[in-house]
Write a structure and sequence with these properties.
Shape of chain A: globular
Strand content of chain B: 15-25%
CATH architecture of the largest domain in chain B: 2-Layer Sandwich
Largest sheet of chain A: 5 strands, antiparallel
Radius of gyration of chain B: 27 Å
Largest sheet of chain B: 8 strands, mixed
Structural class of chain B: alpha+beta
Distance between the termini of chain B: 54 Å
Number of domains of chain A: 3
CATH topology of the largest domain in chain B: Aldehyde Oxidoreductase, domain 4
Order of helices and strands of chain A: EHEHEEEHHHHHHEEHEEEEEEEHHH
CATH class of the largest domain in chain B: Alpha Beta
Oligomer: heterodimer
Number of strands of chain A: 14
CATH topology of the largest domain in chain A: Uridine Diphospho-n-acetylenolpyruvylglucosamine Reductase, domain 3
Bound molecules: flavin-adenine dinucleotide
Chain lengths: ~290, ~775
């Protein structure tokens, strides 16, 4: 049951950061509330102070950088908005595709990308994708700002590199090169995914120049499957050893037994999903090149 | 418009529900209402050394703290089938979640805070948290079995508890050994059925107001009269001093059968002297009642040509720490175990077992859901070994109307062969199947109707409008609409002139219960008879008014007609009383009569549990995709075909959940998936690509117009159909739910050795 709390409505990031610094562990940032209010209702956490950042203007913006080389996403953009945003659909269609598969309609309507990443719940679609994508996260406090690669942000289950007075203020996605294509696969039996795989392939003259592969949801944090990536480099996009890459990703992943399933089954799923994602990414990359 | 039976009348409560006008127990506001919260045991089995409530009682805003010591002036044990459950734990807790104290405070937060101030000293006891543990020699005993007393509505013969087995039920026929000796094909396996939660959108909610020598209870309960009897017994007062009012229910499915949170709420209200409300949360509802998990061993024998000969079944159902309705579930499961076939011999041994888990009780199609998928998978296996078609083998062996289903009781009252043929047609049985696609059928019987005791009153007011007083609970199934239609038919009265308020034991007369698919058939019969009494009165009055014989009068559209003359019902009643006031009263009752119709003699009717499924298997992940689900509602005659179809769809979806993913996971008696985030219930996303429901209207039921009940059968039929569809692709199922991981494991196990045991994949 939700116990009483005080809600603060800062007008700027600085004010928010000051409030967070002031109340320390007694405060939490409140975005869509789809995770926060749930754990508070369950009595798993209690915060006497909630800092509602929805009163800060501009934090839900989705725009192309002035240089036109990256997509900049405000943390308050909801899954629903990201799935439908013409800007995202145009410049990062894979991201929109993944966002459309997050959770259910109700959670998508309220839940934000920032809340998803900062909560660091292990079963995350965006966290898996952003890792493969090489996104950068911008963290701001009252007197400082820093940029962190997505790979360095999630440290463990419900644990991030964010300091208590820091706010995630921007997610920066470099636009993919023209000859890069990606694909995403997830498998769920419950509300949240049991296994997630994101694959990005850069293909030149029919050869894989660069592969980026991330596996998520099976263990505490998403991981890069670098051995599989290395294996694919230099292989022909249409006849690459995708199933071997799937094997490598499976053995690189560190699944745990839980309510979703056994580690053994999850490892199997990683193999299947990786192979499927790579095959589709290759098809898309080759198709893009052929069309282009 | 008169809208009698057979019409797709819109639900009479639809508008009030979508506009939010419809009131549920949780919507009610009472002056001075207190909010109750329950302290629940964190241990599966422990002695309570000490409870100290002093600090809780001193918290500002707390009015009352209740423990078992406050109930020493009454006999604090209750239980539908066995009086084994104390209102609040006495000296000992037996499951994680067992209530041992309760608080009433001015608001919910204060009440919850007070719970954390109650100090309890436990002494851990060895626990039996699984069937295996509970049945082992060294198992700790849940109850001193020699002190177990039958509940008020036991009706199941003598109790012979032994160890943790609180009830044993056996039925048999013929010479089993001989029949198996003649069997050329014998299939034998062990099976597991999980604990399942009967999710209803509205968890149990109760308000109780103690008024000195009487008590009024607003409860989200399915069976107000059974709750009334148990409360009167517990608190030692005449039944008439207990008034149960039942607003709309947000779903029941058996989770609100019998007495649940009412005793604690009444206990709190009695001590507080103010009305108290308890509203369970979902996690609390999950430890209030659930479906029995089960272990089963079954053996079936047949001739080489697939003629069924013998079946031997033993199963153990985990009823948790208190019996609740477990013995009845076990007996009904035993009735379902043989399946609807013509056996030379069968023997069923069914056991109800106490464990240190939350109590298990009723859930839509109980017993049949547990056993049918097992029996039907053995029939299909025999068909495979005999080289026979599953439809054909069923038609050959199915009972025909009038044949004995089990020793004693009702003979078969349904056309099962016709039902199976309808399913086969809807599944395009025999047509080529796409790769990795299988089809399956499951057919069975459920002993339905519970006890045939129902009464009803119809009042026709001076303006010609009618009010139906009947205690059937509207829990989403549409019973108020159905009762309106039955009365509309008999009274020739427009449906919007008919009102069906909710059950209120002070006003609406006795009805045994709302469950076991009985309301349309039994309470419906009582309403039909009550309406018919009014019909006779109207004809009588009209014959006086027109000065003609009653036989020359027709009732139509709320008026009596003689040739082209008419008098409205209102005019007739005014004529009768010679005044602008007065009313006609009709009463109807249903009783077993002649001593027949007891549980042992029953059932009121055999509900057909039938389903068909077409599934596609993803061999990479083990995931099943349901491409088609079909059901047949064998209802005698449909009062409202749309409502029947909605019932079929609802039951099928729950059947799909039971088959594919629903399972309460326990670890040492603690639920691991006690929220809806972790416990997956079927949603729209789980719907099959195609759902087809067919009606069988043979007017062969015991209700008015040959009606029989509906709404449960598909829940048992669908899992059986899905299991058989999967076996059709070569994947055997021994354990529900059929999660992708389990299918994947089965695929791994059968890979390379898809041998005679499970036959080749049948994909053409
Ligand atoms: C039923 C359900 C199903 C789900 N299914 C999926 C799924 O399939 N795939 C998936 O990826 N996710 C899934 N999720 C997670 C979902 O994406 C998140 O709940 C949602 O995005 C969280 O956003 P929010 O705005 O509601 O966060 P909140 O609940 O408001 O906040 C979550 C946490 O993040 C912190 N926080 C929020 N914003 C910031 C910020 N800008 N800076 C710093 N800290 C911040 C908060 O303090 C809090 O600790 C599911 C969740 C639910 C409840």
């Amino acid at each position: 049951m939700l116990r009483p709390f005080e809600i603060h409505e800062p007008g700027t990031v600085e004010e928010a950061s000051v409030l967070l610094a002031q109340f320390g562990f007694d405060a939490a940032i409140y975005a869509g509330g789809t995770e926060l209010l749930l754990i508070m209702k369950e009595g798993l956490a209690h915060f006497p102070h909630l800092v509602n950042i929805k009163t800060i203007p501009g934090l839900d913006e989705i725009a192309l950088s002035t240089e036109g080389d990256e997509l900049q996403i405000g943390p308050l953009a909801t899954h629903w908005e990201l799935e439908r945003s013409p800007t995202v659909k145009k410049h990062a269609p894979l991201f929109a595709e993944v966002e459309s598969q997050v959770a259910n309609t109700r959670v998508r309507a309220m839940g934000t990308i920032g809340g998803n990443l900062c909560f660091a719940e292990p079963h995350s679609d965006p966290a898996t994708l952003l890792l493969a994508w090489g996104a950068t996260l911008e963290l701001s406090s009252a007197d400082a700002q820093r940029q962190l690669p997505a790979a360095d942000f999630t440290l463990g289950m419900f644990e991030t590199a964010r300091q208590p007075d820091e706010i995630l203020t921007r997610i920066r996605l470099p636009l993919l090169s023209e000859n890069t294509a990606g694909a995403y696969r997830k498998f769920s039996t419950h509300e949240r995914p049991m296994a997630t795989v994101a694959a990005l392939l850069e293909v030149k003259d029919g050869m894989i120049e660069h592969a980026r592969l991330a596996v998520g949801s099976v263990g505490p944090v998403p991981i890069r499957a670098s051995e599989a990536e290395g294996l694919l480099r230099g292989q022909g996009a249409e006849e690459a050893a995708f199933s071997t890459a799937g094997e490598l990703a499976a053995s690189a992943s560190d699944p745990i037994d839980d309510l979703h399933g056994s580690a053994e089954y999850k490892r199997h799923l990683v193999r299947v999903l990786t192979t499927q994602a790579l095959e589709q990414a290759a098809k898309r990359a080759v198709g893009a090149v052929n069309e282009g | 418009m008169t809208a009698g039976i057979g019409h797709n009348v819109p639900r009479v409560d639809a508008r009030s529900k979508v506009t939010g006008e419809a009131l549920f127990t949780g919507d009610l506001k009472l002056a001075g209402l207190l909010h109750g919260k329950v302290l629940r045991s964190p241990y599966p089995h422990a002695l309570i050394r000490r409870i100290n409530t002093d600090r809780a009682a001193l918290l500002p805003g707390v009015m009352t703290v209740l423990t078992s010591t406050d109930l020493q002036d009454i006999d604090p044990y209750y239980g539908h089938s066995i009086k084994d459950r104390p209102v609040l734990a006495i000296d000992r807790v037996r499951f994680v979640g067992e209530p041992l104290a309760a608080v009433a405070a001015q608001d919910e937060i204060t009440a919850e805070q007070a719970l954390s101030l109650i100090e309890v000293e436990y002494e851990d006891l060895p626990a039996a948290t699984t069937l295996d543990e509970a049945l082992s020699e060294a198992a700790p005993r849940l109850h001193e079995t020699d002190t177990l007393r039958p509940g008020l509505f036991h009706g199941l013969g003598e109790l012979h508890p032994q160890g943790n087995i609180c009830y044993h039920h056996a039925i048999s026929r013929g010479d089993l050994a001989e029949a198996f000796k003649q069997s050329e094909i014998i299939v034998e396996q062990e099976y597991t059925f999980p604990a399942v939660y009967q999710y209803a959108m509205e968890p149990h909610t109760v308000i109780a107001a103690w008024e000195g020598k009487s008590v009024t209870v607003w409860a989200s309960c399915q069976h107000p009269y059974l709750v009334r009897a148990e409360l009167a017994d517990l608190f030692d007062m005449p039944v008439a001093n207990v008034r149960i009012i039942v607003p709309f229910l947000g779903g029941g499915f058996g989770s609100k059968s019998y007495t649940k949170m009412e005793p604690i709420t009444v206990g709190l209200a009695r001590k507080a002297g103010r009305p108290v409300r308890i509203a369970n949360r979902v996690d609390e509802a999950m430890v209030t009642t659930r479906r029995h998990n089960m272990r089963c061993w079954m053996r079936t024998g047949a001739q080489a040509d697939g003629t069924l000969l013998a079946r031997d079944v033993r199963f153990w159902m985990d009823t948790g720490a208190y019996a609740d309705n477990g013995p009845r579930v076990v007996a009904t499961a035993a009735d379902a175990a043989p399946g609807p076939y013509r056996w030379k011999s069968f023997q069923i041994d069914a056991y109800c077992v106490y464990t240190n888990r939350p109590p298990a009780g009723s859930y839509r199609a109980f017993g049949a859901t547990h056993l049918q998928w097992i029996g039907e998978s053995q029939v299909d296996e025999i068909a495979r070994q005999a080289g026979a078609d599953p439809v054909e083998i069923r038609i050959r062996n199915l009972l025909r109307p009038g044949e004995e289903v089990r020793p004693g009781g009702k003979l078969l009252d349904a056309d099962l062969v016709g039902d199976v043929q309808k399913i086969a047609t809807a599944l395009d049985w025999g047509s080529p199947k796409p790769p990795d696609t299988g089809r399956g059928i499951g057919v069975g019987l459920l002993a339905a109707g519970a006890r045939p005791v129902s009464t009803a009153i119809v009042r026709m007011e001076i303006d010609g409008h009618a009010t139906i007083l009947v205690s059937s609970t509207e829990m989403g199934q549409g019973v108020r609409t159905v009762m309106s239609q039955l009365a509309s038919q008999e009274l020739a009265l427009p449906i919007d002139h008919i009102k069906v308020p909710g059950g209120d034991t002070l006003i609406t007369p006795y009805d045994r219960s709302t469950g076991a698919s009985r309301s349309t058939t039994l309470a419906g019969m009582a309403v039909h008879r009550a309406a018919r009494e009014i019909r006779h009165q109207l004809l009588e009055i009209a014959s006086q008014a027109f000065e003609v014989a009653p036989g020359t009068i027709e009732l139509r559209d709320g008026a009596a007609w003689h040739a082209d003359q008419s008098l409205s019902y209102s005019e007739l009643i005014q004529f009768h009383f010679g005044f602008t006031g007065g009313e006609l009263i009709g009463r109807g009752e249903v009783s077993p009569g002649g001593g027949k119709g007891s549980y042992a003699e029953g059932p009121v009717f055999w509900e057909v549990c039938i389903g068909g499924a077409e599934v596609r298997l993803n061999r990479d992940t083990g995931r099943l995709h349901i491409t088609r689900l079909v059901s047949v509602a064998d209802v005698g005659q449909a009062v409202n075909p749309h409502l029947v179809e909605a019932q079929e769809m609802g039951a099928s979806m729950q059947g799909l959940g039971n088959a594919l993913f629903e399972e309460m996971v326990f670890d040492e008696g603690q639920i691991l998936n006690g929220t809806l985030l972790d416990y997956h219930i079927p949603t729209t996303e789980d719907m099959p690509d195609q759902f087809i429901s067919r009606l069988a209207e043979n007017e062969d039921g015991p209700g008015p117009y040959g009606i029989k009940g509906a709404g449960e059968g598909a829940l048992a039929g669908v899992p059986a159909a899905i299991v058989n569809a999967l076996a059709d692709i070569g994947v055997p199922v021994r354990e529900l739910p059929i999660t992708p991981e389990r299918v994947w494991r089965a695929l791994k196990d059968t890979e390379g050795e898809r041998d005679d045991a499970w036959g080749p994949p049948s994909t053409p």
